[in-house]
Amino acid sequence: MSTTRSPEQGREDGHQIMNSPAIVSQQEWEAAHAQLLTKEKALTHARDALAAERRRMPWLAVGRPYMFDGPNGKVSLLELFEGRRQLIVYRAFFEPGVHGWPEHACVGCSMVADQVSHLAHLNARDTTLVYASRAPQADIARLKARMGWDRIPWYTITDSFDTDFGVSEWHGHNAFIRDGEKVFRTYLINSRGDEAIGTLWSYLDMTALGRQEVWEDSPAGYPRSRPYKWWNWHDSYVPDAAPDPKWVEVSDAGEAAFREHDE
Question: What pLDDT does 174 receive?
């Protein structure tokens, strides 16, 4: 039988007394979970549809030769791609005047940096992530070492890049794609949208090419491969290599189980 707990029944152990939800049987809990799961799946499908719309966003040609300071000297926006087709640039606030300077970057930007997943998986989808700030490279190198962010490529903004791309007074992720040496801006996520950024999937879903998997609703000609098959350990990616046959077997079984569960 369902029961409720009144505030008077809460524990006074230094925490605020809570008026908790109903305490129910396992059968009732599973029924409530199934009801909410229907809404969660609808949200997932809506998120997929939104990502499909992002892949159809018009592109904006980048007409200026933006330059950055890097650990090895001056680099252009094109060079930030590191030869890959897509680029995501996060504007992190680390500079004089920012709370925490010079020991720390902005508290919020630091929380975002803490959530960055291993970049090998993103790179395997032909996509590069970099951070950009106004701080000099010596300060950036010190900050990365202190905070354990060594894997994140981090550059110094030297011109109007942040102003021109809407991130001069607030943080944000700008996505770019290149066609040879021509660079185009494809999307921007900022403000509360940055709360969800950090995982491989959140990065790929904001890009023009998406996850590049066959199930996605993408324009004709976009790169696509089977889901799961391109996955690998972060230290084992080899460009254009065939997937491990054993992993293909395991992932095929997983896909079949997922389909059966959904049906």
Answer: 98
Q: Is residue 124 within 8 Å of residue 237, measured between CB atoms?
A: yes
The residue whose two tokens read 């993408």 is 218
Q: For the whole model, what pTM was predicted?
A: 0.92
pLDDT reported for residue 18: 84
pLDDT score recorded for residue 256: 83
The per-residue pLDDT for 263 is 67
User: What residue ranges define each of the domains in the chain, with the CATH number in brackets?
Assistant: 60-205 (3.40.30.10)
